[in-house]
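A quick aside before the break. I want you to see a complete sequence-to-structure record at least once, exactly as it would be stored in a machine-readable document. Don't worry about memorizing anything.
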Amino acid sequence: MTGYLKYLIDYMPASGDQFIDTPTMGHMPFHGRGSVNTTNMTLRDVLYVPGLEANLVSTGQLAELGYTISIGPYGCRVYKDDEGMDLVGKAHYVDGHLLELDFLRFRASTNSSTGLCLLLLDFRVYI
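That is the input. The structure line, written in tokens, reads:
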């Protein structure tokens, strides 16, 4: 989810009143959905929630993409199993049980040695 319409490509407005339930922010209306495009990958089905001050990444969607999420007292780690468990993301706790993303890199392919950090300097990302 994002509150920044400018980051969405292929934006499709929602038909009628659409809502999403979140564990920490309650029942929130969203106005549409689109994709966030980076150099190495596209995150699809990103909801546009006007007024949302932080961006949210779904751990369920990361798991569907083949990433392993480990949550413990230290925070969260995101791994990709490409011939070994490579650390590709990390988050720390803020405000109790909310995890703020430190970084999250996606590789273009399993043969690529370069990653792209999805964090942009003008907003925070939570998982």
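Two observations worth writing down. The chain is about 5% helix and 60% strand. The two ends are 10 Å apart (CA to CA). We'll return to this after the break.
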